[in-house]
Write a structure and sequence with these properties.
Two copies of one chain form a homodimer. A two-stranded antiparallel sheet of chain A has the order 1-2. With about 325 residues, chain A is mainly α. Helix content of chain A is about 70%, strand content about 0%. Chain A is globular, with a radius of gyration of 19 Å.
Chain lengths: ~325, ~325
């Protein structure tokens, strides 16, 4: 297959982000959430929408869609029954899990953060009880999105996607990583323990984004293995850069309170390696991610590779 | 089919409860939760086990198993690939959702309860942050249980079970009901609004228990409709009896703080109808549930009918 001469990551991202925004807004609307037998309370939906819409870089959804396109070797058209519909639902489901984790993570009993994406956090805006319930309902909604009628997504794919997402979100994934994080404040972690914590806390969901995207098409075993390597590597890179930004960026640019980790005496890659070595490590991981893509045998991985670069060079 | 002459609900329940206890303990053990690429933190697993094991009447799992047996018209043998394995996983998945909802519901920002099943609540025992994460991880684990290998449960059944559970747990189900409950403290609800709240808060998961059990076998449309009616009715009956017990039982019998609703000025069936009419309503609902079973065309619904009676006559 010959590739189109140029690839514009910004244009690609904008188009996909707008598709994701629109889909999220639609699936988080009252009519979409209302069933014949039960009408969800509008106040709950409002807090869920606040937590999810109009914010965020949508990195995880973009990874899902880029991985799906890379494996399908074609742009994905939305519409019931195809890989495009599955990928769009998977993209939004991953984002709902990410959004719920931020809502719960910001609560007073966890990080007690008042600012997120430049807005008051959900519990500041709606109260703690509502934040708790909004997060709980968002996690469930992620699995609702993945289980539409069988004419929309084939049952085998629904089951695969639910399995990947549940494991990435649960105790051997995101929630487990947060528990390690919680237990490690003020403790001296070595680099291996720090990497293990982040592999679960942030890495699992980023890896799942790539693998769920791949599962929407039909990856060869070689492609699947290479993408798994790619996903794990950018998951790690993401966290290294997060730690760097906590030191180098201000709260306005970050859209959340900066310097929190240092203040909280949390172990980070910067506190462990120093700033310049952490920055070098991030660049090394980017090279590893590129090598994984090169080994995938997939004809066009430019969106994935562009997203990896964006992970490392981002300023917020 | 001729039925065995006698049915001993107590013996049936004890056998099934022990099967469920054993399965939950096994699936909540460190080895079962550890993956090649990630090891969950032991402290998190400990709080999850505390929330789930050695407690509760396991009503929802029993409903799943009773419905599955009623539809299969045979005792279910466990073992990969069969309806028995699917039903046992579905039974445990529903219980995990129920357990997580109790953990979050007991937290200070919600009901602020310190006693549950006669033990200190999870946040009292482990701290609020751990309770929050344990609940989050239990919800994810429910979907992990429903998505094992395809040789264990057929993909179509996995997808169906995930879809039923997600919708029962989410904003048009349990979480939505809790949000209505939260918003209605001190407000004058009429009977219809009260019923709507409970249909979501408690009813959705009880109904899902019955429907998930049915989905593990191959129900006829008539049986499915009748079981749906049965599930909705006992869901309602359960809440009416809960409101009665809040007034008539003491904390020791209840295993949780009694009189909370009255103190919190929450609307209940007792505050709305009075005690004796609420008791009569519960008996009427039991008769409706029996009628639904009679209309199901299923040859043996004695376990389901016994569980419905137990819902209404329970003392805790």
């Amino acid at each position: 297959m010959s590739l189109p001469a140029s690839f514009d990551l910004s244009a690609w991202s904008r188009a996909k982000q707008s598709q994701v925004e629109q889909a999220l807004a639609q699936w988080l609307a009252v009519p979409a959430l209302t069933r014949a037998e039960a009408k969800p309370p509008v106040a709950l939906i409002e807090s869920m929408r606040y937590a999810v819409l109009d914010g965020g870089k949508r990195l995880r959804p973009l990874l899902v869609l880029a991985a799906a396109e890379a494996v399908a070797s074609a742009p994905l058209e939305p519409g019931p029954g195809g890989a495009g519909e599955a990928a769009l639902r998977a993209a939004c489901a991953v984002e709902l899990i990410h959004a719920y984790s931020l809502v719960h993570d910001d609560m007073p009993c966890m990080d007690n953060d008042v600012l997120r994406r430049g807005k008051p956090t959900v519990h500041v805006q709606f109260g703690q009880a509502s934040a708790l319930l909004a997060g709980d309902a968002l996690q469930a909604l992620a699995f609702e999105l993945l289980t539409p009628g069988f004419d929309c997504i084939a049952p085998q794919r629904q089951a695969q996607l639910c399995g990947l997402l549940a494991r990435a979100a649960g105790c051997a994934g995101m929630a487990g990583g947060q528990a390690i994080d919680l237990a490690s404040v003020g403790l001296p972690l070595d680099e291996q323990q720090l990497r293990e914590m982040h592999r679960l806390k942030t890495g699992a969901l980023l890896l799942a984004s790539v693998m769920m995207g791949a599962a929407c098409a039909e990856p060869t075993p070689a492609a699947q293995q290479a993408l798994s390597q790619f996903g794990a590597t950018i998951g790690l890179a993401f966290q290294v850069v997060d730690d760097i930004l906590d030191v180098t960026a201000d709260s306005v640019t970050l859209g959340k309170t900066s310097g929190k980790d240092a203040q909280g005496n949390k172990p980070t890659y910067v506190s462990l390696l120093g700033l310049a070595p952490a920055q070098a490590y991030a660049r090394e991981l980017l090279a590893q991610a590129a090598a994984a893509l090169a080994a995938s045998g997939l004809p066009d991985t430019r969106a994935l590779s562009g997203l990896a670069e964006r992970v490392v060079s981002r300023s917020s």
